[in-house]
Amino acid sequence: MQPTTQDSQPLDLDAYLARIGYRGALAPTREVLDALHTAHVHSIPFENVDVLLGRRIRLDLAGVQAKLVSARRGGYCFEQNTLFVAVLRRIGFKVTTLIARVRFNQTQAGISPRSHMLSLIDMPGGPLLADVGFGGPGLSRSVRLVEGERQPQESDVVSLRREGSSVWVLESRMGEQPQDLYAFTLEESYPVDYEVANHFTSTHPDSLFVNNLIAALPTPEGRVTLRNRTLGVLRQGQLERVELEREAIVGVLRDRFGLELPAGAQLSCAGLDG
After folding, report:
1. CB 270 within 8 A of CB 211
2. Cα(273)–Cα(92) distance, rounded to whole angstroms?
3. What pLDDT is recorded for position 163?
4. Is the Cβ–Cβ distance between 160 and 143 less than 8 Å?
5. What are the residue numbers of the active site?
6. DSSP for 47-104?
7. pTM (2 decimals)?
């Protein structure tokens, strides 16, 4: 489903391009898609700070743009990919929005909820997956929707496999054994689907994002990740972890991720306080 004119009007494309530092061509080609994808993930961090501040996570385009572009904040998958899809559609890409069940770092057995947004891009050479909002190993550029092909990213190698007749699974293959990231089908999802999932991820007492501080920012050399008080720096395949003091968190969010928290902001969650 493509947006109506009204849907696309709130997008300030020039402001978005300035936010990600992109000055290249704007045409519905894979080269442009990948350049925008990489620039976005390098510029707009994954983060859930507003959840821990008790703020509503808005998914309307005007609200997402005000936060991620004007206020130069980050966000999680629903915010990041809502913005990116609006940009792609404005440029002329045909996009189908999807929803996935996350498998990465799942600590509980059973089927996880559909809680991750991604998109499928219809291209002459075959469909491509795009996802600027995973916050872990994953996509720094688009990948072809084909089974079994190893597709290098900046710091990961990913591949897709099929489960049954309708489910696709995205795997990270950097280690000796592939690691599932998430599973999805090609059924189109709509804004109301993301609103329901967003309500769970931002408010449910068992949600990962209610109980943990998470921030991540890919770099050309690897990735910087903060989970509660553990800062991880992946650089050229080598991972260094540092345990932070509680009072250092706000400074790390500012210096490592470019996030300026509101004056007097107090972050509190089970992961930080435990």
Report:
1. yes
2. 46
3. 96
4. yes
5. 77, 116, 131
6. E-HHHHTT-----SHHHHHIIIIIS---B-HHHHHHHHHHHHHHHT-EEEEEEEEE-T
7. 0.94
